[in-house]
Amino acid sequence: MDIRKIILIHQLIKTNRTGNPKTLATRLGVSERTVYTYISFFKKTLRAPIKWNTIKESYTYQNNGDINFTWQEKINK
């Protein structure tokens, strides 16, 4: 898994611009099978509520939410 691809997929899903799996694979520079692996990772590991939207022709999130990949420093007490 490439974190840069995960972030890009997330951005594309949020904006309803993934296209179909073949288009997304081309955009990411990976195989279509790899796209399905990434989508499965989002669903199973990140518990992201992703569904295919035939009207928008894009993967979409069913609920509002976000995946945060930024560094957050913790303060030790």
Could you give the topology of this structure?
Blueprint: H1 3-14, H2 21-28, H3 32-44, E1 50-53, E2 58-61
Antiparallel strand pairs: 1-2
- What percent of the residues sit in helical stretches (DSSP H or I)? 40-55%
User: What's the total count of β strands?
Assistant: 2
Please give the domain count.
1
General form: globular
Taking the sheet with the most strands, its summary is: 2 strands, antiparallel
- The second-level CATH architecture is Orthogonal Bundle
**β-strand amount:** 5-15%
Spans of at least 5 consecutive residues with low confidence: none
Which structural class fits the helix and strand makeup?
Answer: mainly alpha
Strand order within the widest beta sheet? 1-2
Mean pLDDT: 92
Number of helices: 3
Distance between the termini: 34 Å
